[in-house]
């Protein structure tokens, strides 16, 4: 509401009797003020939260211009004596906008304060401390508990999707508890060490997937799903080097700081949240039906150079194994239920504060039989032992049970792959009523989902203890002891009813123990001297140790499919299917020293210096320590005289930072080399060198420059944050292929460099304040990634082939797709006027064959015609969140978007290629069939000698841009007056819809997809599809 | 004061932490050894040598046949890929048999053993040290011997790789220099290996006899007949070896560990090879006997029905390795040992050396001993010449039957200079330079100092 619009608003509101009455009362109040000036009175009243009507305890009520005033009690009531009419009462409370009321004749003044959204006044969590957001000189983005509650999501990473500028989150899998990829300011490493460091309540925790079964699977489980979002107070993402350098060696990819809720002095508050919902597939994809499929298969055989008949059962519609007409999506997908309960009790006395919580989640996946159950339990306590000594403990336990149903994996062991390409003709049951478990080389995916075992059971305890001693005013010493322990067991079983070999079944078991523990000791200093010389600092050291152990066995030939424990297996092996050791243990340690000095003068001139030295056991003695300094300055120019006249400008600050951070993401023993035991010869124990040592290995280092601007305008109604950065990563740790004559395939070395540069905008605006509130939060980021240099000796043909679809090449981004360009389909044989051939001596392309772009014009399609066919990096991405509230209703509408990124749709390749009797999409109905057909779908050829299907090609590169209505949350808070009577503090009902609508040109299940966790970005290999969900819930507060 | 004490205390902790940083940060591998931390005691030395044999299993699983038979005249094939390229002489740098990776893995493991075993024994001259070193040298030599015969000049690497400061991009060494090294290594092995280890180990490990047998092959390849005869004599005098009867002939391969076997690569149910895929998958196997091979038997040869199904018009598998009547269509890997050298092979090599040295009277009894076992009449010089042109040819023919499909034929043709003469009518081989394999494209890509073999540039 802008002042000049009052008249128009008034006109508008006069149509509404209630509003009109309200405004009249308000105006009358103003008019009567002067008449009653002069008398002294006692004024009392109650201060409440405008949004939920809750009492605000400890709010200040001051009489403006005097020393008089008071504060509210636990129920929000206050009483002031000696108040004269005409005095102005100033109501203020931390976290709320200050409100002034001029006293008239009334003796009761109730005030509802609006929660402050002045982000610059908030504090944020940073490494080893907390800082006023207003005084930050680095780049930090924060997501609070309110925001998290609106999503009703089950893990903290999904919550960040689209909500934090510069943070790109993509789904590796839509499975319950499935892994996500999170990138802060792009990929800065060539190996898989691109994940940020996760720090929970000051403790660096394990954030990589520990799940080790089904090693062929591209995605694992999300270890952060062990954290109940309901327990989270805030998530901060530290992005620039000034913020992250204090975490030194593991901070090159940013730091995600998760802070859990702690208790506060006061009466116990009980919160119970119950929600339940339903989810479904967002989009079904087209497939051919049985008769369309049979036509296609027969045609593909007729198009061979020497036409053959298909294997007879494929086209024999009377064969009981192949007389079905099944759309496997219908058989495998379901509307899935979910249910979640959160109970939290928080409170405390002056000397003891506690936060106690527990939650239960039971979530079905949208594929039959997939399910995730999670129990979390947490206790955070703080004790003031003396005036100077404070101790505390946080401990959380999570129990997870994930029935993964072999959704991932490769080939026909996987449900997802089979979903779309399994021929519709394969019948579900045989005439005798038994499951048609295996036919024509394929397992029945319904059979896999229902009868195979792939169960992950995890138990995780994360805990920390601290002791904080105030030595003198401003100087504190703190010591933390922390541990993160995961015990995981995984079971796998593939029954013989799904195999072609009589009595052949396989089972596997893995038990994983992972313990990370650490100790941190540091001094914190914070004092203000004289007229605003504020000095702060941190100095300390830490030690952290990681130990990973895995035990397990593989077995086969169990006498029955019913006994699935390994004791029943007739053949037992301690090697996996690839001959690798199942039973392994490894350990890694880091010793660090860190320090920070901060100075600011009246919040106007700010400066900060950080230094961390990290020593890692992963590097040789001489290369062990890395030093990671950073420096930053800030200038709050709004405080300068020049800007004093600009009343609309509340706050404006310029920030600059520079610093370096590291990456040690290599194997624990890579630099020492490895002598593998178990390389036996017959029954004789053998050992052999398998990893070549490289004592010269050292840290990968990222140097980052950041410039930022924070501006708050019009009484903090509009806040703008802009950041621009440049990140140079050098000494990249990379497993470089070396000549096999050495006896080794590759050696990890420090090579080359990568650059990421980008810009991030965050706009927070309160468009309407008052009873009808509307606020908007908009963020948009762009990152440009480029490989700057790669040493000559690691290149083949000028680049490194990075998986099947990507290359790494100087001057190009990491996400480049490289292959052949598809320029359409020859309508007739004679359209190939140049007689272009497949390979130098290969066949000539004819009518119905794809037209490949002949890059070098030699009329031969070969390796030399490969070219850049796409880029997985978006031009920009972000999100926009709108919050509306009126009276007891509030509504959040959140859109997420990504623009300009390409997706290599391997799943579309699979469902449009006539291999292994795959079914096809309905696109195949417009295939080329005879000379003269003009189409973009080539003719179907079984075992095509021209390799039309198997090429990496632009045909499968699609525009992955999208706008997604990611989240809609509508809630109703019952008026306090109503619920007071039944003894409740709070009662709220809400409905949340997720993934409601997606606008995209992408033809797969969902453009929010990334099948590989590593550098092979933007590939859709057929992950567990995303779902659309509707969740209903209530919050009850006592 | 109290606070100062505390500060000092804390600083002391920091200092202590700093001083023991290396102790805290030295982490040795737990479930494996570090590359330099392995060789400590004699059992490590033993395990290191078994690790070389482990690489041998991979190197010969399939390639003993692709290299030794794939380009020669005894095999027919309908399979695509390597079998087709070798048979049709359309070798390209992307075929699998052009990879030498597994041989160099053998060499690398041997180089580690050769460097570290003497350190384990601290210079003491113990029999265990010598026989372990002898085996390591022999295994390295055998790997190089295959490499030289397949690719000609190859990089000669005799030190383990332990640092990137070492030259990673090694050029090729002239084949004669490599053969000199092979001779030296095998000579060391023929002195230092144990004469016998007892039990199955006499067949699956390199004994003195094994070293002598390979030495015989190397001398024959270098046309050094006097030395070949001397080495072969040592083998024949070795009490470990004697010919089996015709009734047991198939068991040399199907069961293994026979008295005729000198060195066979051991396999079992877990450590498997591809013999079935090569020879016995019915219509799908890589190889079956060629027409030319089937027509080359003399009347009454008892080996013939033991090698393939003579009742079939078009036999589609080789029985030799599995037993007469073998009819298993399972694609599962096989557990048979693969015999690389055996007594009959060495006897025929010795016969050939004598024949080429102008000693037919020494050659013929050896040849006839093999013939008689197969139920064939003895040959005198005249019949040998009338049947095969000369004694050398008669011996070469005998080798082609006796050692059929065992991975010798191609090397025999090359060694005797008859590869082009025999293969040209079959697949058009006509260029001497074409006899070598190409170096695999990936090896060329990884090592810029490697030059592709002339014919394939």
UniProtKB/TrEMBL annotation, chain A:
<dbReference type="GO" id="GO:0009279">
    <property type="term" value="C:cell outer membrane"/>
</dbReference>
<keyword id="KW-1134">Transmembrane beta strand</keyword>
<keyword id="KW-0812">Transmembrane</keyword>
<protein>
    <submittedName>
        <fullName>TonB-linked outer membrane protein, SusC/RagA family</fullName>
    </submittedName>
</protein>
<dbReference type="InterPro" id="IPR023997">
    <property type="entry name" value="TonB-dep_OMP_SusC/RagA_CS"/>
</dbReference>
<dbReference type="Pfam" id="PF07715">
    <property type="entry name" value="Plug"/>
</dbReference>
<dbReference type="Pfam" id="PF13715">
    <property type="entry name" value="CarbopepD_reg_2"/>
</dbReference>
<dbReference type="InterPro" id="IPR039426">
    <property type="entry name" value="TonB-dep_rcpt-like"/>
</dbReference>
<comment type="similarity">
    <text>Belongs to the TonB-dependent receptor family.</text>
</comment>
<dbReference type="InterPro" id="IPR036942">
    <property type="entry name" value="Beta-barrel_TonB_sf"/>
</dbReference>
<dbReference type="InterPro" id="IPR012910">
    <property type="entry name" value="Plug_dom"/>
</dbReference>
<dbReference type="InterPro" id="IPR023996">
    <property type="entry name" value="TonB-dep_OMP_SusC/RagA"/>
</dbReference>
<keyword id="KW-0472">Membrane</keyword>
<dbReference type="InterPro" id="IPR008969">
    <property type="entry name" value="CarboxyPept-like_regulatory"/>
</dbReference>
<feature type="domain" description="TonB-dependent receptor plug">
    <location>
        <begin position="132"/>
        <end position="255"/>
    </location>
</feature>
<keyword id="KW-0813">Transport</keyword>
<keyword id="KW-0998">Cell outer membrane</keyword>
<dbReference type="InterPro" id="IPR037066">
    <property type="entry name" value="Plug_dom_sf"/>
</dbReference>
UniProtKB/TrEMBL annotation, chain B:
<protein>
    <submittedName>
        <fullName>Starch-binding associating with outer membrane</fullName>
    </submittedName>
</protein>
<dbReference type="InterPro" id="IPR012944">
    <property type="entry name" value="SusD_RagB_dom"/>
</dbReference>
<dbReference type="GO" id="GO:0009279">
    <property type="term" value="C:cell outer membrane"/>
</dbReference>
<feature type="domain" description="SusD-like N-terminal">
    <location>
        <begin position="96"/>
        <end position="219"/>
    </location>
</feature>
<keyword id="KW-0998">Cell outer membrane</keyword>
<comment type="similarity">
    <text>Belongs to the SusD family.</text>
</comment>
<dbReference type="InterPro" id="IPR011990">
    <property type="entry name" value="TPR-like_helical_dom_sf"/>
</dbReference>
<keyword id="KW-0732">Signal</keyword>
<feature type="signal peptide">
    <location>
        <begin position="1"/>
        <end position="21"/>
    </location>
</feature>
<dbReference type="Pfam" id="PF14322">
    <property type="entry name" value="SusD-like_3"/>
</dbReference>
<dbReference type="Pfam" id="PF07980">
    <property type="entry name" value="SusD_RagB"/>
</dbReference>
<dbReference type="InterPro" id="IPR033985">
    <property type="entry name" value="SusD-like_N"/>
</dbReference>
<feature type="domain" description="RagB/SusD">
    <location>
        <begin position="328"/>
        <end position="456"/>
    </location>
</feature>
<keyword id="KW-0472">Membrane</keyword>
């Amino acid at each position: 509401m802008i002042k000049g619009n009052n008249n128009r608003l008034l006109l508008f509101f006069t149509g509404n009797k209630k509003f009109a009455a309200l405004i009249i009362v308000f105006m009358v109040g103003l008019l009567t003020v002067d008449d009653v000036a002069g008398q002294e009175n006692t004024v009392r009243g109650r201060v409440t939260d405008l949004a939920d009507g809750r009492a605000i305890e400890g709010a200040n009520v001051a009489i403006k211009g005097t020393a008089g005033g008071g504060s509210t009690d636990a129920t929000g009531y206050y009483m002031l004596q000696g108040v004269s009419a005409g005095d102005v009462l100033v109501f203020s409370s931390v976290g709320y906008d200050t409100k002034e009321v001029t006293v008239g004749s009334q003796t009761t003044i109730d005030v509802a304060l609006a929660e402050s959204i002045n982000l610059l006044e908030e504090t944020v969590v940073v490494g080893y401390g907390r800082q006023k957001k207003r005084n930050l000189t680095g780049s930090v983005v924060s997501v609070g508990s309110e925001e998290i509650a609106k999503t009703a999501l089950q893990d903290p990473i999904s919550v960040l999707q689209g909500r934090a500028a510069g943070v790109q989150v993509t789904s590796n899998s839509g499975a319950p508890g499935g892994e996500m990829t999170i990138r802060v300011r792009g990929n800065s490493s060539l190996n898989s060490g691109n994940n940020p460091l996760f720090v929970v309540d000051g403790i660096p925790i394990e954030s990589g997937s520990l799940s080790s079964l089904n090693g062929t699977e591209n995605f694992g489980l999300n270890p952060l799903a062990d954290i109940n979002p309901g327990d989270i107070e805030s998530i901060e993402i530290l992005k620039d080097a000034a913020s992250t350098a204090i975490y030194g060696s593991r901070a090159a990819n940013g730091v995600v700081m998760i802070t859990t809720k702690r208790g506060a002095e006061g009466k116990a508050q009980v919160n119970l949240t119950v929600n339940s919902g339903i989810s479904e597939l967002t989009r079904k994809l087209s497939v051919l039906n049985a008769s369309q499929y049979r036509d296609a298969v027969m045609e593909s055989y007729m198009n061979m150079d020497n036409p053959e008949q298909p294997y007879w059962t494929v086209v024999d519609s009377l064969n009981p194994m192949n007389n079905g007409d099944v759309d496997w999506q219908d058989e495998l997908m379901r509307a899935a239920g979910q249910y979640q309960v959160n109970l939290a009790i928080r409170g405390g006395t002056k000397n003891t504060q506690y936060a106690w919580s527990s939650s239960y989640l039971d979530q079905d996946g949208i594929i039959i039989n997939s399910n995730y159950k999670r129990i979390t339990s947490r206790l955070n306590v703080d004790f003031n032992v003396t005036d100077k000594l404070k101790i505390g403990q946080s401990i959380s336990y999570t129990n997870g049970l994930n029935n993964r149903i072999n959704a991932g994996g490769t080939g026909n062991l996987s449900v997802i792959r089979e979903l779309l390409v399994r021929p519709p003709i394969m019948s579900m049951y045989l005439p005798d009523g038994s499951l048609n478990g295996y036919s024509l080389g394929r397992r029945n995916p319904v059979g896999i989902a229902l009868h195979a075992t792939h169960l992950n059971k995890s138990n995780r305890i994360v805990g920390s203890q601290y002791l904080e001693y105030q030595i003198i005013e401003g100087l504190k010493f703190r010591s933390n002891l922390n541990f993160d322990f995961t015990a995981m067991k995984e079971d796998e079983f593939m029954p013989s009813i799904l195999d072609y070999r009589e009595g052949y079944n396989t089972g596997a078991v893995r038990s994983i123990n992972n313990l990370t523990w650490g100790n941190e000791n540091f001094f914190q200093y914070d004092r203000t001297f004289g007229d605003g010389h504020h000095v702060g600092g941190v100095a300390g050291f830490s030690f952290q140790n990681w130990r990973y152990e895995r035990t397990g066995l593989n077995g086969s030939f169990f006498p029955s499919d019913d006994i699935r424990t390994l004791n029943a297996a007739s053949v037992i092996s301690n090697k996996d299917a690839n001959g690798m050791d199942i039973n392994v243990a490894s350990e890694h340690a880091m010793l660090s020293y860190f320090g920070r000095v901060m100075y600011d003068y009246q919040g106007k001139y700010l400066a900060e210096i950080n230094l961390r030295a990290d020593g890692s056991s992963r590097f040789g003695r001489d290369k062990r320590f890395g030093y990671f300094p950073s420096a930053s300055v800030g200038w709050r120019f709004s405080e300068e005289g020049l800007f004093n006249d600009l009343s609309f400008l509340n706050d404006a600050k310029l920030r600059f930072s520079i610093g370096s951070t590291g990456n040690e993401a290599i194997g624990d023993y890579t630099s020492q080399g490895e002598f593998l035991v178990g390389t036996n010869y017959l029954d004789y124990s053998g050992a052999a060198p398998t990893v070549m040592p490289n004592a010269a290995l050292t840290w990968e280092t990222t140097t980052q420059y950041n410039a930022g601007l924070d501006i708050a305008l019009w009484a903090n109604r509009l806040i703008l944050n802009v950041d621009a950065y440049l990140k140079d990563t050098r000494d990249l740790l990379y497993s470089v292929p070396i000549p096999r004559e050495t006896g080794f395939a590759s050696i990890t070395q420090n090579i080359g460099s990568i650059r990421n540069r980008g810009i991030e905008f965050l706009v927070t605006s309160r468009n309407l304040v008052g009873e009808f509130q509307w606020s908007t939060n908009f963020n948009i980021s762009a990152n440009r990634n480029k490989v700057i240099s790669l040493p000559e000796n690691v290149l083949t043909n000028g680049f490194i082939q990075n998986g099947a679809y990507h290359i790494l090449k100087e001057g190009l981004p990491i996400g480049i797709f490289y292959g052949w360009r598809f320029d359409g389909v020859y309508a007739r044989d004679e359209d190939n006027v140049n007689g272009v051939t497949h390979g130098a001596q290969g066949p000539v392309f004819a009518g119905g064959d794809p037209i490949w772009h002949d890059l070098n014009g030699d009329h031969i399609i070969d390796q030399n015609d490969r070219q850049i066919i796409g880029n997985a990096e978006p031009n920009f991405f972000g999100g926009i969140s709108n919050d509306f509230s009126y009276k007891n209703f509030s509504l959040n509408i959140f859109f997420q978007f990504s623009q300009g990124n390409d997706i290599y749709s391997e799943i579309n390749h699979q469902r449009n290629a006539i291999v292994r009797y795959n079914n096809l999409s309905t696109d195949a109905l417009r295939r080329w069939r005879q000379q003269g057909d003009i189409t973009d779908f080539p003719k179907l050829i079984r075992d095509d000698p021209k390799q039309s299907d198997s090429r990496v090609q632009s045909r499968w590169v699609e525009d992955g841009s999208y706008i997604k209505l990611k989240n809609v949350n509508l809630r109703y808070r019952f008026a306090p007056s109503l619920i007071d009577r039944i003894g409740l503090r709070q009662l709220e009902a809400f409905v949340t819809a997720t993934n409601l609508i997606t606008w995209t040109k992408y033809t797969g299940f969902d453009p929010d997809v990334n099948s590989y966790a590593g550098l092979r970005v933007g590939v859709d290999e057929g992950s567990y599809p995303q779902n659309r969900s509707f969740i209903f819930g209530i919050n009850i507060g006592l | 004061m109290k606070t100062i004490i505390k500060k000092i205390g804390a600083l002391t902790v920091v200092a202590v932490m700093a001083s023991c940083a290396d102790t805290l940060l030295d982490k040795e591998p737990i479930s494996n050894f570090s590359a330099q931390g392995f060789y400590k005691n004699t059992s490590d030395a033993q395990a290191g040598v078994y690790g070389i044999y482990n690489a041998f299993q991979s190197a010969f699983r399939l390639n003993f046949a692709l290299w030794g038979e794939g380009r020669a005249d005894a095999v027919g094939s309908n399979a695509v890929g390597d079998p087709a390229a070798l048979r049709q002489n359309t070798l390209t740098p992307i075929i699998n048999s052009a990879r030498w990776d597994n041989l160099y893995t053998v060499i690398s493991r041997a180089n580690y053993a050769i460097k570290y075993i003497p350190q384990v024994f601290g210079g003491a001259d113990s029999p265990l040290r010598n026989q372990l070193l002898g085996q390591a040298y022999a295994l390295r030599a055998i790997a190089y011997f295959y490499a030289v015969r397949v690719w000609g000049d190859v990089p000669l690497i005799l030190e383990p790789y332990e640092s990137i400061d070492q030259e990673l991009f090694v050029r090729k060494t002239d084949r004669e220099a490599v053969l000199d090294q092979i001779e030296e290594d095998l000579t060391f092995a023929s002195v230092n290996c144990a004469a016998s280890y007892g039990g199955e180990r006499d067949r699956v490990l390199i004994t003195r006899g094994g070293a002598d047998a390979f030495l015989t092959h190397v001398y024959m390849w270098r046309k050094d007949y006097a030395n070949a005869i001397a080495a072969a004599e040592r083998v024949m005098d070795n009490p470990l070896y004697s010919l089996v009867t015709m009734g047991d002939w198939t068991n040399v391969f199907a069961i293994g560990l026979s008295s005729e076997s000198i060195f066979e690569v051991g396999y079992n149910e877990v450590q498997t090879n591809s013999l079935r895929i090569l020879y016995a998958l019915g219509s799908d196997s890589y190889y079956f006997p060629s027409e030319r091979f089937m027509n080359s038997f003399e009347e009454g040869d008892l080996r013939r029905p033991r090698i393939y199904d003579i009742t079939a018009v078009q036999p589609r598998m080789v029985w030799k390795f599995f037993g007469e009547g073998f009819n298993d269509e399972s694609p599962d890997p096989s557990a048979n040992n693969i015999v690389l050298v055996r007594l009959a092979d060495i006897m025929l090599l010795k016969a050939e050396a004598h024949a080429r040295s102008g000693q037919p009277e020494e050659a013929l009894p050896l040849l006839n001993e093999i013939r008689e076992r197969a139920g064939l009449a003895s040959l005198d010089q005249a019949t040998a010449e009338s049947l095969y042109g000369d004694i050398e040819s008669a011996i070469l023919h005998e080798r082609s039957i006796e050692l059929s499909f065992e991975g010798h034929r191609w090397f025999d043709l090359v060694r005797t200079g008859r590869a082009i003469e025999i293969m040209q009518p079959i697949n058009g081989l006509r260029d001497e330079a074409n006899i070598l394999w190409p170096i695999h494209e990936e090896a060329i890509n990884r090592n810029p100092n490697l030059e592709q073999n002339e014919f394939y540039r």
